[in-house]
C-alpha cells in the first residue's frame, strides 16, 4: 500500500504532466490538432486602431458584395413576368404552376443573379405531389424572395 504522501505526490506528478501537455509545454504524441484550422480570432482591443479599421473595412466590403448579389425590385418584377409567361397548364384552382422544362427556360432568361435559384435541387425541394410534376410559381417566387 502507498502512503497518503506518495498518493499526493503521484497525483501532483500526473496533474503536472497533463497540464504541461495541455499548455503545450511537452508535445503530445497525437498531432491531429495541427491539422485543425484556426477559426477564432479575438476582437481587436481599443488601442489597436489599425486592426479595428481593417475589421471595419473588411466587414463593409463583405456587406457590399452580399448586397450586389441581392435581386433589386426590377429584377424581381422581371422574374415574376418570366415565370408567369412560362406557366404550365392546367392551373390548380388559382395556383399557377410550372414544369421543369419551362423552369429551366426561365432560368436561362432571368439573368446571372437568378441563376443560383434554377437548379434541380431547388425544383425537387418545392415539388409536392403534383400529378404533372410541376411546382407552384408562387412558392418558387417566395423561395427566391426569402433566400435572395
From TrEMBL:
An example GO CC term for this entry is: cytoplasm
**Localization, UniProt:** Cytoplasm
Q: Which domain of life is it from?
A: Eukaryota
Concerning InterPro entries, the annotation shows: PPP2R3C
What GO biological process, any one, is recorded here?
B cell homeostasis
Keyword annotations for this protein, in alphabetical order, are: Cytoplasm
Q: Which PANTHER family match?
A: SERINE/THREONINE-PROTEIN PHOSPHATASE 2A REGULATORY SUBUNIT B'' SUBUNIT GAMMA, SERINE_THREONINE-PROTEIN PHOSPHATASE 2A REGULATORY SUBUNIT B'' SUBUNIT GAMMA
What is this protein's record name? P2R3C phosphatase
